[in-house]
């Protein structure tokens, strides 16, 4: 049932939501709380979508009445305002979801789909209780727990068949040691701004929906699908007959095609070797090792068999022509350099000469190359590359070829843009001047000022003197003495207070500098100014 006093909202929801695809047979509509109560008393309603702010009674009041009447309804509340009190009340009344307008229909569809799933689970649970079949409700969780522990244990040691058989017996699972099983690993790369990075719960729900829809096959069952670490999911298949590798590749290819439009992310799939249940621990370990050691490209399908063949001849690092790349930096040709780095990486990958260890050495060489280039320009690279964005790109750079390319682009582009900035000496000097004028009372050592513009202190000092004709230290003194004169002229502060305010804790030193610059002591200057009024 949809409840909203806005006729157009009700009409839009009726028409734009594909109710049939959600397995919803009947949609009732109401424009106020009284109409909604009447419908609820006459018809079975499982899901409620209601506005909160309505003139003839709020959605929260309607939900409170529903709870009082013990109607088993999943409530999705809509509102124009992110009001904490509304959200708190909605939680107290056990609302299923609290959704802010304007309505994003694709997200609302997923929320309704989750509500439908909740209704089905509750109906199934009620049937199970009535029939005395409690184990049905917990079966999927028991399977997930069993496989999650097996994945965790297999990453550090191999599980002996006897230990595995005992675990199966203790948990009363429907497995025999000669069952044919096969793990699949999915590495996801959610785009910035997608549900995967912002609304994890909805993303996981949508992901599993897409997966189970594609992998419903008569030749195998999907016993579980679980996320064993961030953005890494493993599905466990149990074959009913002989494993069909071509079928799996076809299904994985379909999953990759659907990931971008439906999940707004990219992915790659890795297919483990099929195995009997007694050897599944080794099978999982091979899969996890491959994922940690092999460099992947997005939207590709990989086989553990290929990795095992490559592992016999480990890839060795062959450094690119770093001298030529350094020359490209010096000739201000970053686009050419970026094209060559991508060509190098893609070439190594296509010839199967790239693993995480090799990629890590490549990253180290390139970082050293760029840092050396910046050092020659007097730029402090370790200061330039601080910040969340760069740290995130660095952390992700070994995940895939595309992640390394994004890291390299940020590394090179940032260096060249800042090199251009520092070569406009006027811009650097003006930024330093503005900082001194705004912070003359703070510590203003040469090192402190150099950090502001990420430059070597000696280089900044030379640049400042060249542009202004005076040293950096002399300019700081000029600004502070000018500020001190202003304070002595316009305030009743003591000379000691003025000295502290302009950055001189040592009064004698301040007095000496002031006399050198003005021709009289600060006290004399203050008396002279006061005597002139």
UniProtKB/TrEMBL annotation:
This is AraC family transcriptional regulator. One of its GO terms (biological process) is phosphorelay signal transduction system. Keywords: DNA-binding, Phosphoprotein, Transcription, Transcription regulation. Residues 430-528 form the HTH araC/xylS-type domain. InterPro entries: CheY-like_superfamily (IPR011006), Homeodomain-like_sf (IPR009057), HTH_AraC (IPR018060), HTH_AraC-typ_CS (IPR018062), Sig_transdc_resp-reg_receiver (IPR001789), Tscrpt_reg_AraC-type_HTH (IPR020449). The modification 4-aspartylphosphate is found at residue 51. Gene3D superfamilies: 3.40.50.2300, Homeodomain-like. The lineage of its organism: Bacteria, Bacillati, Bacillota, Bacilli, Bacillales. SMART domains: HTH_ARAC, REC. Transmembrane segments: none annotated. It holds the Pfam family Response_reg. Residues 1-116 form the Response regulatory domain. GO terms for molecular function: DNA-binding transcription factor activity; sequence-specific DNA binding.
